[in-house]
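chain below, 317 aa
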Amino acid sequence: MRKIGIIDLGTNTFNLLLAEVKEQDYSIFYKTKIAVKLGEGGITKGFIAEAPYKRGIEALTKYKAKLVVENITEFYAVATSAIRSANNGDLFVQEVKDSLGILINVIDGDTEADLIYQGVKQAIDLEDSPKLIIDIGGGSTEFIIANSEETFWRKSYKLGVARLLETFNPANPINIDDVAAIDNYLEDTLEEMLEMAEVYEVNSLIGSSGSFDTLAEMISCKNGDCEIWKKDTSYQFLMTDYNGIQRMISGSTLEQRLHMEGLVAMRADMIVISVVIVNYILNRLIIHDLRLSTYALKEGLIHTLLTKSHSWQKSSL
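prediction:
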């Protein structure tokens, strides 16, 4: 049995996942995340600003130290929207290679969407009917229409919460005009996705990763057990619970959200934008089945490495 590491360099967080591998099976024994907010101050201008650039290097330095402690000699690093769209993204990748020996695979939106799908279908039985999978990131949001056997359509949009927050700069708390402006932008941008969702008669929404994790944890805390959503690889949102928490988020100030149980500080500003996106999709497509997959890109990458031929760039200590 060997060990393998995955580093997911997202826009909001850098994630580390460590797993024990035997043939095509794996078991996760450690995972953590560090808030880097890589898009802060520069995402709409097309660059990584000095402070988040430094936070990113510091996070990867800590992750390399953990890999050394665990004696993991095989690991893969993947970068998504913030790095691939920044004009100094290549500089960041080169500095990480030169100073830490970590080789970063910068992936496009289609590859990101495929890895998310590969992760989600390990966590949830997607069955035969097409489902809409959404991964709301900081720099981009991936939309995938798929069932358990195949992907029918997928697309990555520059609709990350950090990007939209900086673009629209909503009031505190967000007001009706702000929501209307973002909704109109989503309507114009997501025309193709909406058409495809109707073609495939989508009536179920599965969210993966940060924003949906946060909503699940906030609801769990409100219901008396902050850990309950973590006990399985999927979580079913009751619409009454979701509606209650989204109203609380939408009606609150940033200062109030910083004290809400289950909401980590780094997401306190962006969770409002996440709620606007989710509300728009639920209402626009008339969806009443909302679920969370606790697996996403990281787990999808491990599955791909173990089950398919690939050309991923490996780092070795």
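The longest strand covers residues 25-35. The two ends are 18 Å apart (CA to CA).
thats it, cya
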